[in-house]
Every structure is written in structure tokens, then in C-alpha cells.
Amino acid sequence: MYTPAQLQEVIENAIQDINYPAQPAKLYEPIRYIMSLGGKRIRPALTLMAADLFETDILEALPAALAIETFHNFTLIHDDIMDNAPLRRGKETVHEKWGVNNAILSGDVMMVEANKQLSMLNSAILKKALETFNATAQGVCEGQQLDMEFEQQDLVSIPEYINMIRLKTAVLLGGAMKLGAQVAGAGATEAEQLYQFGVNLGIAFQLQDDILDVYGDPEKFGKQVGGDIIANKKTLLLLKLKELASPADLLKLDEQSMNKDYADKIKNITGLYNAYDIRELANVEMRNYADKAFDALSSLTVAESRKSELFELADLLMSREH
Q: 217 burial class (0-12, 13-18, 19+ CB within 10 angstroms)?
């Protein structure tokens, strides 16, 4: 059994060993740059952990893990363009450094590179792997589209929001695990259980992010606390407040959406959250999805000792402060 840290090192070394063409430089340099910015490499690690669960050589699953990580970073390039974000992991974003047109094209090539990596898998499982990868990639794009549409919608229900984060964030974790299981030759039931583990863990992870954005320690959170409040972002907390608030408090909330004094805005909306115990209600929802994830992993017919690293990683993700 490998620890997540050992697998992350394997992935980091494999990324450094990828030989992208030298020319055109402005097409491939952005790819080397975004892939070298690090990050936790959780998604590709989950692919390798899934393969390792079934006692398969993790190197057999490495092309799938690299495809997942390449695709993930491709989405980051395009997300940063859509969000007009200046920084990614504390460094200049690709579109700021090379321009929007270059960033779009480099992102497009990363999707091709992901497919090239997948094509290195054993031909016996390639069809299944491609189906899983394509369904995952399509889901992520659908989630991003819904997220953009929600910015313009006045009314978004909590089930609609959960579905959006399931697609935008969670299916990539589920797909990463399912790919690892398929490489290992696991049956359809086992692959689906790992998919459900990844998806529910991903939903819980995003809901936790919503909570930390308001209640996290600024020094540990790594980004501005209250950023979602400033941006009027529709999070679980905001949607739950809209569901429960009195007409008078809904009016206060509406007034705050235009408040340009951001410190005051954060204070006032957090006060409304506290008045309706929104933090605890959001925690209950988050724990519900975390429990679903743990149940899916528990039901997997693999020796408990082989699941221990996955349980520990999930615990670590759900107890984070940033």
C-alpha cells in the first residue's frame, strides 16, 4: 500500500518527465508552466489509490492519472480566463502571462495531451476508460456552464446548486477513482462504488469550502475570508439563508448585495448567517455527503486494511482548515 504522499511524489516526477514539443514555444511553454505550479495532486493520487486498492501496479494506472491531472489543469486555464483571475496558486495566471488567445489555445492542446496519455493504457480497458474520461470531462464543462448561468439567475434552489457542484467539482474526483478501478480490472459494481465515494466526497469538500469562506481562519484558509460574500456568490449558505430568512431580513440581504464597503458587507451578512444558525445547517449538509462517501467505501468488498489510506485521506480532506 502506498501513502498519498508517496503517490503524489510519483505523479510529480512523472509530470516533470513529460516531453512536450519545443515549438511553437508560446503554445507549449504555458502548458509546462501550469503543470509545474504544483497543487495537491489529489485527483491523480485518487486514480493511483483506486488501482492500488485492487493490488494492481500503480504504473499501469499512471497514464490515466496524468490524463486526469492534465485535464484538471486545462480547466483551470480556461476558468481563470472566464473569471479574469490574475493569480493561480500565488503565481501569474497563464492568460496574464501569455495573453488570452494563447491561453485558450494552450488549454485546447492540453485536452489533446490528456487523450494522448489515455491512449497509453492497455487496449483491453481503453474503451471503458475513454467512456469514463469523456463523461467526466463533459460533466465538468456542464457544471461550469451552470455556474455561469447561476450568476445571472435570481432564483437557484439548493438541489440545483448541489447538482452544479457535483458536475463542476465532484465528478472529477469520482471519475478519477473509477478510472483507477477500471485499469485494475475491477468489476462494474466496485468501480461504481468508488465513483460514488469520489463524487460524494467532492460535494462534501465543496460545501466545506463554502463554510470556510465565511468562517475559516484567514491565516490558514489561504485566501480572503468572505470572498464569496463580496462577490454575491450563490453558495449553500446564501441559498439556505434565502430559504429561511424573514421578509425583513431578505430585504436587508438584498440591500447588502450593493454594499461597496466590503468589511461592513461581510460583517452584516455573517450576522444574518449567525442569526439563522446557517453554519450548523451547512455543516449537517456537508456531513451528510461525507457520510455517503464513507458508506460507499465501506461497502466495497476489499480488505479493510487496503482501504485505510483512502479513509485517512478522506478524513484529512474533511478536517482541513484551508
A: exposed
Percent of the chain with pLDDT over 90: 88
d(CA 107, CA 90) in angstroms, rounded, equals 20
- The partner residues of 88 in beta bridges, in order of sequence, read 91
Listed in sequence order, the residues at least 6 apart from 104 whose beta carbon sits closer than 8 Å to its beta carbon are 78, 81
Q: Residues with Cβ < 8 Å from 75, sequence gap 6 or more?
A: 140, 144
Contacts of 234 (CB under 8 A, 6+ apart): 150, 151, 156, 161
Specify the DSSP element, H or E, that contains 92: strand 91-92
For the stretch 311-318, contacts whose Cβ atoms lie closer than 8 Å and that sit 24 or more positions apart, written own/partner, are: 312/4, 313/4, 313/42, 313/45, 313/46, 313/49, 314/197, 314/201, 314/290, 317/42, 317/201, 317/205, 318/201, 318/204, 318/205, 318/208, 318/286, 318/290
- What's the burial of 297, exposed, middle or buried (CB within 10 Å: 0-12/13-18/19+)? buried
204-253 pLDDT, tens digit per residue, is 999 999 999 999 887 765 556 898 999 999 999 999 999 999 999 999 99
Q: What is the pLDDT of residue 89?
A: 85
Q: Where are the alpha helices (DSSP H) in the chain?
A: 4-16, 25-36, 42-53, 58-83, 94-98, 100-118, 123-152, 158-165, 171-183, 188-215, 218-221, 227-230, 236-244, 247-256, 262-275, 278-298, 304-318
Overall average pLDDT of the 281-298 stretch? 97
